[in-house]
Amino acid sequence: MALEIIESCINCWACEPLCPQQAIQAATPHFLIDADRCTECSGDFAAPQCASICPIEGAIINELGEALNPPGSLTGIPPARWAAAQAEIAAR
To answer: What is the pLDDT of residue 68?
Structure first.
């Protein structure tokens, strides 16, 4: 049971001080979560603290590879609408 930070992480430092297990470490090219220390905040909080503060959609995933902040969850923009807007901009 451990979370993972993936390449979309921008190293903003928001998550590192919030981890109650001190499982998050600064690294290059992105932060890392020590799987041996990560408890997903089980027993401490209702939700993982790193995901609750992370400003990047999809940067933290669970053991199944599912994003804790999936696309659209922070911005409120459905992924299909975002893709359409990006295509419209690119076509200009």
So the answer is: 95
